[in-house]
Amino acid sequence: MPSLSLSPSQGSLSSSTSGSNYAPPSPESVNCASSSKLSLDQQDEENITITAKRIPQQKVTRQKSQEEDLRLLAISTHMTELSYMISDIQTRIFEIQELRHKSQSNGDAASTTSIIDQSLMSLDEKLESVSKGIKSINDSLDPYLQATPTIPHNGSEAEANETAAIIRKHNTLVSEWEAVQDESEVLREELKEDKWLTVFRTVTDQADGMMSSLEKGVNRCQEFIWQVHRRGIEDTMGHSQISLTRPEKTAPTLETFTALLDSFEAKKKHYMPATSKVLAIIDKGVRDRVTKNGETLRRHAESAQRWKNLRERIARTDADMDSTPESTLKARSQQVPVYQGTFGRSSARPSLPPSSFRDGSSSRAPSRSTSRAGASTPSGTSGLPTYEYVPGNNKDPLDVEVAFIVNSIAHGLLIERVDPPIKRVPGENEEVKAQYAFSNALSRKVVTCKLTTLTRSGKSGTMTTKKVMCRVGGGWQDLTHYILSRQAGM
């Protein structure tokens, strides 16, 4: 606080006195002298000088320096924390890479997908936090980064050294941040590649399954054609009975020819367009990929070559089936007797189970049944019996959609609902699940199905698409693809 000093000037009254004859002052003169002294005192009070004590400039400079040091210390501490967080992010990236390689070596990518997804979510949160911290540091150090370097004077040399150290630490932090961002981008690209490889394998397996089914049909037709050309009509009419020592295969009759032709045409109708579409998707995916994987290139080339050879075989088989004389087959069916021995095998073919294929030699029912699941109905010219599925509850959207899908595909599977029908109508966004059994002559598999509703907004309005997904292995597969895959393996 500034101090005030009061220095009044004292006036003195000097009066001349006589040494010998001194006369006392009169009352009037005393009053006059008192008033004169009072006037002088008032003038002295008005002339008081106020003096303020100033703070030394060195103390102000020292205070500013301390504040600057505290600010730089806070920035340095924040940068240290960010450096630790960047190190933690690098550790997370390494752990995710280890999970990738472990799943690839074990072949169990589905089980580790959820773990990797959770790790990626945590990694994104940490990256966002570090990004905000880096931005805050850049804003705080912007005056120092933009300042022009000057020659330090006296005590400012230490401050300049501290500022230079902070700037060097900031440059190191920025370099670490850019490096970890690059590592994160590389990891994301590799994970995208892994997911694409999984999709590629799934789609390629579907294409291979459909081509295998077509190859089976081609082999059956070619075997039948070979039997016709081997026997000939003269050789056929020369056999009056079937050898008792060596059972023969099904005779090449007109009924067998018709059944084979219908089955072959049905497979071509459904599998050839689907296979061409799947292979086109694979081809486009391989061409659009920036990175080339040896497995994808090899399998893509093998699938393309296999499909080319198969189409050539199908074309030759079509020509051979068209050139097969029907008169020969009619004569064979009229001349070959049916063996009725005592080997316990009836001449009439036993009835087939509901989920099996119907052979060409079996009789065909002319009428269509409208009963529940398991009613065998002919599927037009496909030659493959379709077991119509009737929903148990028309208010169950999942059951209705399953019936619509399975009844629109030519297949030989028997579909049954395992879970009981629902008792109430599900809500609009409520997930609907149920178990269904898919049976054929060899096996019966129970899978979980769920109804998925996709809503898309476009220029023409909102479009809603319903799909039924099946739980297969560790993931979900479209019901149509699942039925085609099961059909291809029959």
UniProtKB/TrEMBL annotation:
<dbReference type="InterPro" id="IPR013889">
    <property type="entry name" value="Karyogamy_KAR9"/>
</dbReference>
<dbReference type="Pfam" id="PF02187">
    <property type="entry name" value="GAS2"/>
</dbReference>
<feature type="region of interest" description="Disordered">
    <location>
        <begin position="1"/>
        <end position="42"/>
    </location>
</feature>
<feature type="compositionally biased region" description="Low complexity">
    <location>
        <begin position="345"/>
        <end position="382"/>
    </location>
</feature>
<dbReference type="GO" id="GO:0005816">
    <property type="term" value="C:spindle pole body"/>
</dbReference>
<keyword id="KW-0206">Cytoskeleton</keyword>
<dbReference type="GO" id="GO:0051293">
    <property type="term" value="P:establishment of spindle localization"/>
</dbReference>
<keyword id="KW-0963">Cytoplasm</keyword>
<protein>
    <recommendedName>
        <fullName>GAR domain-containing protein</fullName>
    </recommendedName>
</protein>
<feature type="compositionally biased region" description="Polar residues">
    <location>
        <begin position="28"/>
        <end position="41"/>
    </location>
</feature>
<dbReference type="GO" id="GO:0008017">
    <property type="term" value="F:microtubule binding"/>
</dbReference>
<dbReference type="InterPro" id="IPR036534">
    <property type="entry name" value="GAR_dom_sf"/>
</dbReference>
<dbReference type="Pfam" id="PF08580">
    <property type="entry name" value="KAR9"/>
</dbReference>
<feature type="compositionally biased region" description="Polar residues">
    <location>
        <begin position="324"/>
        <end position="337"/>
    </location>
</feature>
<dbReference type="InterPro" id="IPR003108">
    <property type="entry name" value="GAR_dom"/>
</dbReference>
<feature type="compositionally biased region" description="Low complexity">
    <location>
        <begin position="1"/>
        <end position="20"/>
    </location>
</feature>
<feature type="region of interest" description="Disordered">
    <location>
        <begin position="316"/>
        <end position="390"/>
    </location>
</feature>
<feature type="domain" description="GAR">
    <location>
        <begin position="393"/>
        <end position="490"/>
    </location>
</feature>
<dbReference type="GO" id="GO:0030473">
    <property type="term" value="P:nuclear migration along microtubule"/>
</dbReference>
<dbReference type="GO" id="GO:0043332">
    <property type="term" value="C:mating projection tip"/>
</dbReference>
<dbReference type="GO" id="GO:0005938">
    <property type="term" value="C:cell cortex"/>
</dbReference>
